[in-house]
Write a sequence for this structure.
């Protein structure tokens, strides 16, 4: 989620261990402009979480 004080997304928990199949994990922090409430953030997170290979 976005930290209102800094305006950027921060880590919300521990980073997952590398997958056993040798795949490479990449962390991407997105700065989404125009979100005015927690519902907006949850909607974006939910949509991203439905994409194959994405953990929001």
């Amino acid at each position: 989620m976005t930290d209102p004080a800094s305006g950027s997304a921060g880590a919300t928990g521990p980073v997952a261990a590398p997958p056993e199949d040798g795949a490479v994990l990449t962390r991407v922090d997105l700065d989404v402009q125009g979100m005015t409430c927690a519902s907006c953030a949850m909607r974006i997170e939910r949509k991203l979480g439905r994409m194959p290979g994405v953990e929001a």
